[in-house]
Amino acid sequence: MRRRFDVIGDIAVIGCTVDELEKDTAETILRENKRVRVVLAKSAPVRGAFRLCGLKLVAGENRTLTVHRENGCVFHVDLAAVHFSPRLVNERRLVAESSEPGEQVLNMFGGLGSFSIEIAKEKRSTLVFNVDINPDAARLCLKNVLANSLRGRVVTVLSDAKEATNSLFLNKVGRVLLPLPEKSYEYLNAAISALKDSGTIHYYDFVGIAKRESCVDMVLAKVAKSNTKADLSLRKGRIVKSVAPRRYLVSLELHAKKSGRV
Q1: Domain ranges of the chain
Q2: With CB atoms 3.0 to 4.6 Å apart as the test, which of 61, 78, 103, 259 could cross-link to 174 if both were Cys?
Q3: What per-residue confidence (pLDDT) applies to 210?
Q4: How far apart are CA 16 and CA 37, in angstroms?
């Protein structure tokens, strides 16, 4: 039986499976994918403030550390310590391409720096602030900044995103990323407060709906009902990926014009 799996560096991660099938699946992956040295299985869903899932070794070397390459960037990843999805490779590229040269960008849930580093690599005069509350994510982000020769171009901030915004970024940046769907709605006003008089917000949210083509409109309607002190308009909207039957991750690129100081 074929099992869907993700490859991050030289580590393959398979979804939760029936125990007796895991070993056979892992051996097949190792045999058919020469660059894979480790096979892990998810033993629990993503949860908690750090977005971590349970993992167990099924075959290969006993480690969770790897080096992942995408879109011309290098990322040191520890799957036991940080959340990282290779399925967002195209989304990271699109966000990097949409950024403007010379912008200051705030990534409010930056993790190990994947979005931030790809933006800075794509637009050489851009300064990106990568905020995350996970100390391991901040440590890996620093390592990835050096690995991609972006010292001084991506700044790592270990903090809760709201606290960092209120103390460091009020009315300072031109673009804000909210790449944590579980928290985007809650942190939308903080994102707006970080913008200058106007700017761009990359907003991510989950939606469960029978008609796939209505996903973007449904998330946009949710955002429109939020109590924000800004006029929000849609520039681009897309379905990033399916996360479960009839459940999708949606990306909105919003233009925000403040109606007053937030």
Answers
A1: 5-63, 86-258
A2: 103
A3: 79
A4: 19
